[in-house]
Amino acid sequence: MGASRPPAIASGQDSRLIAAFLEMMAAEAGAAGNTLLAYERDLRGASELLGGRLSAASADELKELSSAWMPLKRTTVARKAAALRRFFGFLADEGHRQDDPSAALPRPGSERRLPKVLDRSAVDALFAAIERRRLERGDKATLRLAALVELLYGSGLRATELMSLPRHAVAPGKPFLILKGKGGRERLVPISDRALEAVKAWAEHVPRESPWLFPSGKSHLTRVRLYQLLREVAAEAGIPPDRISPHVLRHAFATHLLEGGADLRALQMLLGHADIATTQIYTHVDSRRLVELVNSRHPLVDGARKGA
Q1: How far apart are CA 250 and CA 279, in angstroms?
Q2: 184 and 53 in contact (C-beta within 8 Å)?
């Protein structure tokens, strides 16, 4: 199906982007070796079928690819489609694509699972571990860690957005950021007083010549290093390493705001989602709380109480 498509340049691009995706999966998601091999096999197989144009594929091309999978088992198709959806989500998140065509892929299996989330006690334990570091060490590495976690959990930033923040992006007396996220969409991101204080303390140690708020070498902090830092402090807080990542803290931000009564549309804006359906999947409120919400807030409940 790809014989008529010239793969020369795009094939190299596919290989580069697949390698970057696998690196992210190993670092952020803690994917096991066998899982990474399965992802690589599925992605490279799809790339071959598309003549080396997987990373640039259109929705129509993905539908064509789905047709080629028809003879396969349902579970195999579900696995391949899930791998490609995650890959295209990565491309959009990293700015390699302005769109995500993965909606055209088949969904023969169950819907995707909700992201992992930390409850409030775990988040409290995480910040307590950072505070212990501050009291015991008082070094600039701890100040940087505090600023990173405050922005991840306090503002729901994506890892890439956080690491690439310009040096003066967060300024005293300016409790918000204007970020350009997926698809080039701009959004307003509030910054808490705690985060402002944490960034102020860290910014004093950032070299004046650095264009980045979180510099590292000739560039900024990498997502791999960010993930490592989170795992280290999570271990000190008694949180299993596989439960923590920048994405988990972003999801905790969304979940805890929703549990606190935030409007779903406002949350959509804060997270930078183009489609509110994404916000509904991304956020999670347990069923018990939803039942309690209906029983305590629905107008018919008030009517029943008055008539009792």
Answers
A1: 12
A2: no
Query: CA 160 to CA 181: how far, in whole Å?
Result: 9
Read off the DSSP letter of residue 139: -
Residue found by looking up tokens 């790339």 in the block? 47
Distance CA 167, CA 261 (A): 33
Quote the CA–CA distance of 94 and 96 in Å, as a whole number.
6
3-state secondary structure of 3: coil
pTM over 0.70: no
* Positions marked catalytic: 158, 182, 247, 250, 273, 282
Q: Where are the beta strands (DSSP E) in 19-84?
A: none
Show the domains of the chain with their CATH numbers: 8-104 (1.10.150.130), 120-288 (1.10.443.10)
Beta carbons of 18 and 61 less than 8 angstroms apart: no
Cβ-contact 209, 128 below 8 angstroms: no
Tell me the per-residue pLDDT of 274-303, one tens digit each, with 9 for 90 and over: 767 667 766 555 555 556 666 776 676 555
Burial class, 60, CB count within 10 angstroms (exposed 0-12 / middle 13-18 / buried 19+): exposed
